[in-house]
Each structure stands twice: as structure tokens, then as C-alpha cells.
């Protein structure tokens, strides 16, 4: 028994400990403690012998009861009853065993009130004042008053140990009694707290209940959980359907770690970057949006590849290995005339579609050529070109060379004077002479056609000299079909 009190003294020296155990006396206002008890009549006169347990009077059994009620965070009221077997008097002499009983009402001041020490501390020191009375061997009830200090050690939420010591001044009777007068009382034991408030009646005290006004299970700290998924409704992003705690209570049907409510493909495993959708070819475009889901492509082309890098997907590109333009479905147009090179007879020279993409002389140039051609002079009755016409022919050849992808028709015409067959032959020879002149100046032969029509196509009246002069002429016409360039 005396060793137990030594242990209690060591526990009181541990009062510097101040670790939280999540229990507060204001929320659990009732306290009950039972323990061992010892009284010392010698120490009040010889205080230096306070720790000498040889003067302590006790019984080897539970001999002390405390029933307490917390009034507020700082004060409590305790009823304490104690007993002992007295074998040592105030002088330290052994006396015959006498029964001792006392009862006291304590006004307790708690240092673990939230101002001095945390109210939910492991160690809760306190001081108290008391009034009450005691009786020794039935000698009558003697009033006493006093005070003391103590410690509660809350090792579990509502259960702990306590140790307490007090000085008690008691009246003496008229005769000398060695166990009359003041005494020290020491007690230690176990203590429990209870009476916590449970507003919503869910079996979880308000202090531990995250939702004290709404009933809920222990698994969600007292908060409602409609779908029973272990996530409180107030924290559950999907409160009406069971889900995963890692996803704030929302389900994940395909198990890809993305909540169904945020998953654009909830039945297919996908990536977070693609909102839960799969990407078979790994090009960063979800399969459901990928126009080419089985081949890696570009995001800006909806997952399709672009082999030539012209910004047109291969599947839509008529020329997928050569850079082209969108207006020509990905085919190149080197001369920029709006005709794809593959269809352009002159891919390096811009020209109209009506001429296969080849350039054509301007209208004013054609007009001037027609005027010039009619002025070509020949030696009478011969296909020999007169020297004065060379300048005219040179200008026409220059125009032909300026437009290398054009083809030309050279026609010879005569009046009706003389033999018609001879006139036809002469017109053919004269047209051929003009053709040969142009060839000599560098115009490709395959670009030139020549023919004669004699007097069959007059443009004036052969009955007059002026009309016949006008009918003797050379015409050069543009054939509007380009020659394909390589």
C-alpha cells in the first residue's frame, strides 16, 4: 500500500505533461473515482515527515469514493468519502487499530481550464478547498475544513488515474485524544468521466460529432451518410450514390481513378488528361474524337497524320507526300494560278484554267499580232517573204517566245485572180514560209501549225482592187491549249 502512494507521488511530479487526448471535462461533466486512502496524524506537527509512509494509516482495500460535477471550465464540486484503520497517532506512536471515516464537500479549481493548461490535457492538476467532518472509532462526528492539490491522469478518453493530498483541520474533544486534531489525507485510484451531451442521439458525443445536430454513423464521425459509402454527405460530391472515399464519395465504374461524374467515357478506362477517355494511338486525342484512332496524328487535325506537313490530314490530302494547299485538297500549285500541278499544263507559269493553266497573250497583244500578220508581204506569185516584212515577223516571233506554252495556227489566203489550184498551193507555201521563219527564230515547231486556203475564205470583195488586196493576207491565230511543262 505504501509503495502505491510512492508511485502516486512520482505521478504528481509528471504534471508537466500536457498532451491532448480529446476529452474535456466541460463536455463530460460527471466524475466518479475510487481508490485507496491513507491518513497521517503525525505530519501536521512534523511536516518534515510528510513523505514517511510509516505514519500513514490505511486499509488494504478500496477506501475512498469521489463523486464530482463540473460547474464550468474552471470549477467543480466533489463529494468525497474516505476510510482508514488508524495504527499511528499524532506523536508517531502505535495505537490499537481504530476505525476512521470522513466525508467532505470540495470546491475544486481546475488548472486544465483552457487558460492555464489545455482543457483536454492528459494531465489535469487541480487545487481544492473543503468542508466536512470525520469520526474516529465512533467518538462522534468532528467538523473539519482544509484544502489540497491533486492530479488527474487521463490515459484514455474517459478513464484515468488520480492522486490527491490534503490538509484537514479538525476540532479536538475536551479530553486528550492522540488522533484528534489536524490530519493529512492521501488518496489515489481510478477515475472515470461521463455525461457527455449527444444532441442528435446517434451515440456519438457532441464533442466528437462532426455533425452534432444530425444523426450519423461512427464511420463518418456522426455525420449523415445517405448512400452508406463511408463518406459524410457534407463531404460527398455524390451523396445519393455509393462511391469511393478517394473520389469524394463518387463512383468510378471503369476503375480509371476518375469519378463517373467527371468521366466523359465512364465505361472505358482512360486518362485524366483526356477526361477519362482512352487514346489507343497515344496522340493526345481521345478515341471518341479521333478521326484516325488507330494511327498517331496531330491534335489540330483531330488525331490524323499529315505526312507532308501542309496542314491537311493525309486522309483528305490528294497529294499526301507533297506539300500543297487546302483549296486544292493538299496538292501543290507552284505557279499559284489555282490549278494543281498535276493538272496544270504549265505548272511553272500561271495561266487561266481555260488554257490548262498556261499563260495566254493579252487581248491587246493578240489584236496587234493580227494587224501585223496581215501586213506580211511576199514576192508576187512566190512564197518568198519580202525583206520589209522581217521586222513584223520578228515582233510576232518575240510574242510567241514570250508565251512559250502557247500553240499557233498560221493561215495563208489569196484573192481569186488566176487558177484556183495554183492559188491554194501558193497560200499553203506562203503559210509554211512564215512558219519556217518563226522556227528559225527559236519557236518550237510543235507549237506551230500552218495551212493555206487559197481564195476560199475572202474577207472583202474580189471585184475591186482594194478588196483583192485585202483578201491576199496571212492570219496567225492562238490555239488556246497549253503545252505541258515537265
For the record, give the distance between the C-alpha atoms at the N and C termini, rounded to a whole number. Answer: 119 Å
Round the mean pLDDT to the nearest integer and report it: 88
Oligomer: single chain
- Largest sheet report: 8 strands, antiparallel, barrel
Structural category is: alpha+beta
Strand tally: 12
Helix content: 10-25%
By DSSP (H or I, 4+ residues per run), the number of helices equals 5
Strand content: 15-25%
- What form results from the Cα inertia axes? rod-shaped
By CATH reckoning, the class of one domain would read Mainly Beta
CATH topology of one domain: Porin
Q: What CATH architecture of one domain would you give? A: Beta Barrel
Strand order of the largest sheet: 1-3-4-5-6-7-8-9
The run of helices and strands is HEEEEEEEEEHHEHEHE
| Poorly predicted ranges | 1-24
Radius of gyration: 61 Å
Describe the structure.
- This protein has five helices and twelve strands.
- With 486 residues, it is α+β, with helices and mostly antiparallel strands.
- Among the domains are: 2-194, Beta Barrel (Porin); 363-479, OmpA-like domain (60s Ribosomal Protein L30, Chain: A), CATH 3.30.1330.60.
- Strands 1-3-4-5-6-7-8-9 form an eight-stranded antiparallel barrel. Strands 11-10-12 form a three-stranded mixed beta sheet.
- Helix 2 packs antiparallel against helix 3.
- The chain starts with a helix and ends in a 7-residue tail after the last strand.
Topology:
Layout: H1 2-13, E1 30-40, E2 57-58, E3 64-70, E4 75-88, E5 94-110, E6 123-136, E7 142-153, E8 159-170, E9 183-194, H2 363-373, H3 390-402, E10 407-413, H4 420-440, E11 448-452, H5 465-471, E12 473-479
Parallel strand pairs: 10-11
Antiparallel strand pairs: 1-2, 1-3, 1-9, 3-4, 4-5, 5-6, 6-7, 7-8, 8-9, 10-12
Helix pairs in contact: 2-3
Amino acid at each position: 500500500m505504501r509503495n502505491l502512494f510512492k508511485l502516486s507521488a512520482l505521478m504528481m511530479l509528471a504534471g508537466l505533461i500536457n498532451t491532448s487526448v480529446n476529452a474535456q471535462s466541460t463536455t463530460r461533466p460527471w466524475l466518479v473515482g475510487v481508490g485507496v486512502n491513507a491518513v497521517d496524524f503525525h505530519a501536521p506537527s512534523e511536516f518534515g515527515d510528510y513523505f514517511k509512509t510509516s505514519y500513514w494509516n490505511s486499509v488494504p482495500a478500496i477506501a475512498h469514493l469521489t463523486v464530482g460535477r463540473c460547474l464550468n471550465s474552471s470549477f467543480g464540486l466533489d463529494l468525497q468519502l474516505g476510510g482508514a484503520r488508524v495504527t499511528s497517532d499524532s506523536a508517531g506512536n502505535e495505537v490499537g487499530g481504530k476505525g476512521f471515516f470522513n466525508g467532505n464537500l470540495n470546491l475544486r479549481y481546475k488548472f486544465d481550464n483552457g487558460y492555464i493548461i489545455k482543457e483536454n490535457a492528459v494531465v489535469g492538476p487541480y487545487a481544492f478547498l473543503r468542508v466536512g467532518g470525520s469520526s474516529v472509532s465512533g467518538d462522534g462526528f468532528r467538523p473539519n475544513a482544509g484544502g489540497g492539490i491533486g492530479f488527474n491522469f487521463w490515459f484514455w478518453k474517459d478513464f484515468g488515474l488520480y492522486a490527491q493530498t490534503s490538509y484537514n483541520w479538525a476540532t479536538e474533544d475536551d479530553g486528550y485524544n492522540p488522533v484528534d486534531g489536524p490530519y493529512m489525507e492521501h488518496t489515489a485510484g481510478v477515475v472515470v468521466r461521463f455525461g457527455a451531451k449527444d444532441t442528435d442521439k446517434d451515440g456519438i458525443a457532441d464533442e466528437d460529432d462532426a455533425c452534432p445536430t444530425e444523426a450519423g454513423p461512427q464511420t463518418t464521425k456522426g455525420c449523415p451518410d445517405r448512400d452508406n459509402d463511408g463518406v459524410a454527405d457534407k463531404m460527398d460530391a455524390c451523396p445519393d450514390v455509393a462511391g469511393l472515399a478517394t473520389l469524394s464519395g463518387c463512383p468510378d465504374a471503369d476503375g480509371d481513378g476518375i469519378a463517373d461524374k467527371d468521366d466523359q467515357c465512364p465505361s472505358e478506362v482512360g486518362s485524366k488528361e483526356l477526361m477519362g477517355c482512352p487514346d489507343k494511338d497515344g496522340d493526345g486525342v481521345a478515341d471518341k474524337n479521333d478521326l484516325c484512332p488507330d494511327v498517331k496524328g496531330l491534335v489540330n487535325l483531330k488525331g490524323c497524320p499529315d505526312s507532308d506537313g501542309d496542314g491537311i490530314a493525309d486522309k483528305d490530302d490528294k497529294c499526301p507526300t507533297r506539300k500543297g494547299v487546302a483549296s486544292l485538297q493538299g496538292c501543290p500549285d507552284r505557279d499559284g494560278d489555282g490549278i494543281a500541278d498535276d493538272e496544270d499544263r504549265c505548272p511553272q507559269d500561271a495561266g487561266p484554267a481555260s488554257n490548262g493553266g498556261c499563260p495566254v497573250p493579252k487581248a491587246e497583244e493578240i489584236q496587234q499580232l493580227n494587224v501585223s500578220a496581215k501586213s506580211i508581204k511576199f514576192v508576187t506569185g512566190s512564197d518568198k517573204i519580202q525583206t520589209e516584212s522581217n521586222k513584223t515577223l520578228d515582233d510576232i516571233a518575240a510574242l510567241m517566245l514570250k508565251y512559250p506554252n502557247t500553240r499557233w495556227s498560221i493561215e495563208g489566203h489569196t484573192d481569186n485572180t488566176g487558177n484556183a489550184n495554183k492559188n491554194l498551193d501558193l497560200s499553203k507555201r506562203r503559210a509554211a514560209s512564215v512558219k519556217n521563219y518563226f522556227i528559225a527564230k527559236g519557236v518550237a515547231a510543235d507549237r506551230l501549225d500552218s495551212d493555206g486556203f487559197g481564195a476560199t475564205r475572202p474577207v472583202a470583195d474580189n471585184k475591186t482592187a482594194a478588196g483583192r488586196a485585202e483578201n491576199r493576207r496571212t492570219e496567225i491565230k492562238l490555239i488556246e491549249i497549253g503545252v505541258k511543262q515537265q
